[in-house]
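Researcher: For the record, we're logging two predictions in this thread. I'll number them. Prediction 1 follows.
Model: Prediction 1, sequence and structure:
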Amino acid sequence: MKPTNRKQYEKKVGISGNAQAAYELAKSIFMQNGFLVKSLDAKSAEVTSRIGLLQKNQNPIHGVSRGELSYRDNHLSLSAELGGLKRLQRFLVWFPVGLMAVLCLIFVLLFRNWQVVWIAGLNLLPWLIISPLVNRYWFHPRTVRALDTLLENAARNVDVRN
């Protein structure tokens, strides 16, 4: 399955080996990355993260804010809310706006010239276009690839062990 929209993710992979072992491996990867297991039963787990995706060098799996990992009939599936990406997108839009507001205030107080505000304001315009594009074409694909890789590796590693 492909992502249903920009903020959601769903995928199911087939496993020819032990589905429970693949499920346990994928669950342990989430736990090793700081995710909290909120609910757990024999065939599914709900994981949440409060860390969020805050920088480009961070593990892209942190784009997930809540996920449900489960296995049924030799299939491992993951459905996730990409709230970490949404939080990052808000930051990428509001940080330049806040920075511009502070700079405009400083320039007006220092130089007593309102024309300086326009110069600072013009520096904001490219970021209002670039910020959503960075999230859509860089951070979102990285998170989706990381989740795809997590599921596929869990399925393959179990197949190799059996």
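Researcher: Logged. Prediction 2.
Model: Prediction 2, sequence and structure:
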Amino acid sequence: MEEIKAQIEKLRGEEGGYGSFPDIPLYMDQLIAILSKNDSPLKENEKLTSSMVNNYIKQSLIPRANGKRYSREHLAYLSVFTKLKCALSVKDAGELTKQTLSGENIGENYDGFLRVLDESLGEMAEKMGSKEDIKRLALKCGVDAYVNRILCEYLIKSIEGPPAKKAK
């Protein structure tokens, strides 16, 4: 339990924020290398390949590259997206990523996402510090994930608005 708590604490504040991303055009291999640094056993589901990035672009889940070059904006989108897709469907993760990062200042929006992430990691670390039975804590985390996913899907749909009616 202490090892898991240490991993969670290590993740807190690990991401340096939007300003830590290189402000130069990047090729695909550089993009993936930057997003793959700071590997942790808890981040196993965040692995990224060039095929995955290309598929996300084709599905309009993240912005297109400028030629074959990627920017800080792409790093932010992929960072948020890879985290959200661990808990949500790819479609919902893409939609929530767009909603999270949209607006005038993508950097501020990304840093706001990181604050929410850090807050959640802190709450989880506190739970890990309790003497609660590890099986019960695992069950609680699983049930919380289920409930949070249902709520998140509902909230995403309410932000999107009702589906357009088909013309007859």
